[in-house]
Write a structure and sequence with these properties.
single chain, mainly alpha, about 0% strand
Length: about 130
């Protein structure tokens, strides 16, 4: 009887620990493993979607061969969005929620906005 109690307690400890790891540990691990990749892909996807929209509008306004080639080139860039979507889903499966992913995304925008501002300052033509 005492042996069954010990086995039952050990099983309960294993189950509680497993639940804790799955519920709290997995999201922390996923955020640590994929945070930088997520930020990079999110920013790239945003940029590519903007470029694709501009190229699509250019074709609608003036369907020249150059405009069509440019549109086709931007469509290839949309693969970054596919990679971003796959990583986002993987992170959700690992237990991160939408708010946590949004927070990582905001971090990316703040970081990239700073880099973009610095890039503009360096290359801006001064009058």
């Amino acid at each position: 009887m005492k042996r069954l109690l010990v086995i039952g307690n050990a099983l309960a400890i294993v189950l509680v620990a497993s639940y804790g790891v799955a519920e709290y540990g997995a999201p922390v691990v996923a955020a640590h493993l994929w945070r930088e990749d997520y930020k990079d892909l999110m920013f790239k996807c945003d940029q590519v979607m903007r470029e694709h929209y501009i190229a699509k509008r250019a074709v609608e306004l003036s369907p020249t061969p150059d405009a069509v080639r440019n549109l086709e080139a931007t469509e290839l860039g949309l693969l970054d969005c596919h990679d971003y979507d796959k990583l986002r889903k993987r992170m959700l499966v690992w237990g991160l929620n939408e708010d946590q992913l949004a927070s990582i995304g905001l971090d990316a925008l703040e970081e990239k906005q700073y880099e973009l501002r610095r890039f503009i300052e360096i290359h801006e033509i001064r009058y």
